[in-house]
Amino acid sequence: MTEDEFDAFYAAAFPRLVGQLYALTGDHGEAQDVVQEAFVRAWDRRRSFLADEAPEAWIRTVAMRLAVSRWRRARRWVDLVRRNPPADRVPGPGPERTALVQALRTLPEAQRTAVVLHHLCDLSVEQVASETGSPVGTVKARLSRGRAALAAQLSGPDARDATGARSDDDGDGRSAKESGRVR
To answer: Phi, psi at residue 166, to the nearest 5°?
Structure first.
């Protein structure tokens, strides 16, 4: 069969074969896919494809086998899923994670980016500086300010500064109010 003969055969037989496979599969898209695949396989052997040997029957047979193969593959998938069902529910984030995300949202973007890249993505300060295009000192300052803001938000009213002392602590472990030295 020449290319022109094959093209004419395709134009005449494709709609008819799709209709027949649609009746078999019940899915028009699936019928088009398997008939198209059968024609692709026939194209590879078009030179030995003889018009008087019922090429439409050959393509129909190939398309039907492809449809059955796809059906079997889908059936195996369904059986596999039934035997190994997915977990009922994936637990959502815990309250600590939710609080952290909310606190991160309140930070300025530059501080949030530095904190996330350094602490959550495990990048070094130098890598964060390279990725953000900022000097190393700027990244260090953003990290320090970001950590302080997060500590204040996540710890509540008893937030402690970087030295471990409360912000209203006079150094003796008691607040100014507790020691009687209100300023």
So the answer is: -70, 155
